[in-house]
């Protein structure tokens, strides 16, 4: 992540969305990169021997004030890798962001001793550790990679279907009682009511297929 931060043009922040350990210090990483300048990731990453670009997806248009790309890379992270330190003390990484040469993260630990061990290791290996806040919670919070369903849904739905679904949700179409009718939402979208209903039906059908196809493939659902 540090190599990308120093090499890519105008990087503002790099967020680690998901990561898997491969072998011999290699990690498969999904990174959300926000920058002030547009760039071609294949060209920019080619000189980096420790990073291999596997896939990239542009999430903002070229006219935007900030440019957002999702990069999937195979990276050889130097030892110690911050994520590795977090995992070794049995902490759950919830968020990890690199911005302006500084890592900021959120992690969940079961015991205060685990937190102290994590803080000591980070300070020993990297020279500095700053605690910004501590919260006592009943749940572990969302670990890295827990946003995969949202990404799958966005990839499966067309832009028109996603817009229809989001607008219906925001205007209270799914509330009880409904705060907006199909005709009102269609007017907001400047389309015919029949067109809105068809887009919404297709979006709902796709969502149900995603849910129940996962069930058929062996995922367990709790009542």
Characterization of this structure:
By secondary structure, this protein is α+β, with helices and mostly antiparallel strands. Among the domains are: 2-76, no CATH class; 148-216, Arc Repressor Mutant, subunit A, CATH 1.10.10. It has eight helices and six strands; from the N terminus they run αββαββαββααααα. The chain has a six-stranded antiparallel sheet with strand order 3-4-2-1-5-6. Strand 1 (11-23) and strand 2 (26-35) form a beta hairpin. Helix 7 packs across helix 8. It is globular. Keywords: Transcription, Transcription regulation. It comes from Halorubrum ezzemoulense DSM 17463. Residues 13-140 form the Bacterioopsin transcriptional activator GAF and HTH associated domain.
